Amino acid sequence: MRRLIPVLSIALAALVAGCGTTSSGDSAATTPNATPSKLDPVATIQQAMNRSFSGTVTMDASVKAGSKALTLNGKMDPAAKALQVTGEAPEPMEARLIGDTAYIKMDSGDGGKPWKKLDLTKLKPGSSLRQSFDLKTQTGIVGGIVSAEETGGGRYTGTADLNKAATAAGTDGGMREGLESSAKLAKEPTAIPFEATVDAEGRLTALSYTIATKSLGDLVTDMRMSGFGETVTVTAPPAKDTEAAAEEMYKYF
Predict the structure, then answer these.
(1) Considering only Cβ atoms within 10 Å of each terminal Cβ, which end of the chain, N or C, has fewer?
(2) What is the spatial distance between Cα 167 and Cα 47, in angstroms, rounded to a whole number?
(3) pLDDT digit string (tens) for 235-250?
């Protein structure tokens, strides 16, 4: 069980790392109704991220680090604070969020029930799992974009600064700490190449970026967003298959 917990936290963080709003200082965050075509490319992408996660959305994500990879599919409703994620990380995993209650499916190896129920309010302020489920405070690498150009058909390329992204992320939920850690691992933290796609409605539909690290090889992240505005329903697992997480589990999150 101890081996699965860190993997799950990282996987969930990878899925929602780009969700939510940019910092309050961004022009994209203060002009949500502006026409995307009238904005510069950086502001267009930042505002497009806001638009994508202003309502319900489905995301497919993959993260590769050297020979290891994880894939995830998630559907989320930020307003209702509801999220459901399935994937391979590399073991099969599933997690659900309903309000401040998280359900994580895992093989404990001790004959316990497959679903563990956690109270997010009991997690530490800098918890990686709290970060993963905190959809409203995520900014990710988009908050650190320093240059971008449109290449046609709503596609953009550019670079982002992980240090700038960390500053834009704020201090809640551990996102700043995560970005700072990534910056320390990166060979060139101020020049992370990315590609993005914005649709005709001004929503971000794709985002990919590569962090060349000092010792782990390339960390490649790819996200695809769709299903905007579609109904998202997340239900709790059957009670017979669920048990409250042991107090010691909170130490690992």
Answers:
(1) N
(2) 18
(3) 999 999 999 988 888 8
Span 41-246: which CATH code? 2.50.20.20
Domain coordinates in residue numbering, the chain:
41-246
Question: What is the distance of C-alpha 108 from the center of its chain?
Answer: 25
DSSP the chain: -TTHHHHHHHHHHHHHTT-S---TT-HHHH-TTS-GGGS-HHHHHHHHHHHHTSS-EEEEEEEEETTEEEEEEEEEETTTTEEEEEEESSSEEEEEEETTEEEEE---SSS--SEEEEEGGGS-TT-HHHHHH-TTS--GGGGGEEEEEEEETTEEEEEE-HHHHHHHH-SGGGHHHHHHHHHHHBSSTT-EEEEEEE-TTS-EEEEEEEEEBSSS-EEEEEEEEE-TT------PPPGGGEEEPPGGGGGT-
* Dist CA 145 CA 49 (whole Å): 12
Residue range 1-54, pLDDT digits in tens = 433 444 444 455 544 443 333 333 343 333 344 444 467 999 999 999 889 888
